[in-house]
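This part of the workshop introduces the protein records we will be handling. A record pairs a protein's sequence with a compact description of its fold. Comparing a sequence with its tokens is the quickest way to learn the format. The record below serves as our worked example for the rest of this section:
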Amino acid sequence: MSVSWLDNIISFISPEWGAKREAWRQSLYEMRSYDAGDYSRGNANWRVTNQSAEYTDKYSRDNVRARARDLERNSDMMNSVIGAYKRNVIGGGYILQSKTGSDDLNDVIESAWRKWCKKQNCDVTGTQSFTQMMRMCMKRKKIDGGILIVKRYTSDGFLPFKLQTFEVDELDNSQMTPKIQGNKVVGGIELNEYNKPVGYWIRQYPVDSLALTTPVYVEAKDVIFLYTKHRPSQIREMSDMSPTITRIRDANEFMVAVSVKERIAACLSVFIKKTIPTTGIGRGIGVGQGSLHDYQGKSITPGMIKELNAGDEIQVVNPAGQATDAASYIKLQQRLVGAGQGISYEATSRDMSESNYSSTRQGIIEDEMTYAEEKEMLTEVMDEIFETFVISLWLSGSIQIKDFWKNKDKYLDHAWIIAPKKWIDPQKEANANKIALNTGQKTFKQIAAEQGKDWKEQIEEIADVLAYAREFGIDMGSVIFDKTKEDLYEDEEDDSTAKG
């Protein structure tokens, strides 16, 4: 803090007044500043600068991604986090529910969608089904930070529409010249004046080499770039695992050290101490010893009885030490890694030893809020793919709709039903659903969706079961609805009585 010439004069004339002025000045400075923003002793080495997101990320992006991939290949803790996201965000996949307003048209679209989702129809490489592609996209987003999904219009397959995926490495960082004058290219993405992506420059090279050719320009309307945007100035992706990469690596290195230590501690070494040399010069060498034993290459086995040479003595080296703190340390690290990714320790470790029904359910509820953000992004990707699918379905003549373009939104309307997860306590969950249904907190449609079922199909199935059982004189009403035959078919019996 600088001192003015006036303060120097006052301090020279009256040191007391000079000290008071300085004390009040420092007090004023502390009142109008943040502890987190000063450079006092505690923060002396914490030097930071404010820069745009792209400027900050571009120097670390490739290195962070490479390290995340290394942990993906070699770290069980890393894969425990990724596995938790895959299981809960996409799991067994999503079921399409078309909502055109026509049951017949809905059935046609849903049937065509199931057919298109097979690997030979949706993937240009013919190696992954749609659900498998989405599962891979979810994984690459968490590790690499993002993935590019390109719409391709081909002549083969069920429809002239397929998908091709590209890793973010294939965006050409070296491309500087835009395709359209007035645009700019940042990190392989061509942007307009509002920083809106209008095209992507994708490198062309064989998958088994690094031989580069001229990059290909793909218009943004045919590209879905799946990544998380954290700041307005962010253009490209950054690995979702970046906040926890160093902690995961520390835990791995710790476990390697503990493993080496335990292997050493498990070794039992035996040394033979000889009081009389077996060889040498002199008349006393070997006197009265008879034949000598050679211990080289010998090992200790259970129940072994072995005679030693006269004068030989055994000295045992048994390294002591156990990894007593390893379990607690790794548990703490895994808790912190889970917290850094917004999920619970139980979700990553699968360790339920310290939880009960209430705590587990609360943890699942909190985790679901984290997964909901990823589900939102994934369903947006699937929405765009589905809309292109329906348009391709109409253009190919697979569906006949005269007013398709006029009422396009109506025919593109749909919903996704995620495959259900198993209940922690089926009885408690079922009672909770029953109470929610009876009190109007949930509708039958909502409960059916939570179980991964179409509510109309479920009602039709129940009606079929009741009708079929009735033909054989079996009362299924008491089984399904806890009602007697008279209560369930009361209206029909009244009608028959009236007719009689």
Summary: The first strand starts at residue 94 and ends at 98. The mean pLDDT is 83. The chain is about 45% helix and 10% strand. Residues 10 and 358 are 69 Å apart (CA to CA).
